[in-house]
Amino acid sequence: MTELKEAHLLGFVQHGVNSHATGMWRNKTDKVGYHFSRPDYWQHMARTMERGLFDAMFIADELAPYTTHEGSSDATVKYAVQCPTHEPSTIVPIIAAATKHLGIGVTLSTMFVHPYPMSRLLSSLDHLSEGRLAWNIVSSYSKSEWEAYGYEDMMPREERYDRMEEYVDVCYQLWDSWDPDAVIANKESGVYADPSKVKLVDHNGKYFKCRGRHFCEPSPQGRPVLWQAGSSGRGRDFAAKHAEAIFAVHPSVERMREYTTDLNERIVHEFRRPSGSVKFIYGIQTVVAETRSEAQDKYERIKACIPLEGALAWMSGHFGLDFSKMDLDAHVQNLEVPGIQGLFDSVIYAKDPLGKIPVTVKEAALIYAQGMGMPVLVGTAEDIADQMELFMDEGGADGFMLAATYTPGCFEEFVDLVVPELQRRKRYRTAYKGKTLRENLLSGTVSR
Question: What's the CATH code, domain 3-176+208-296+375-447?
Answer without folding.
Answer: 3.20.20.30
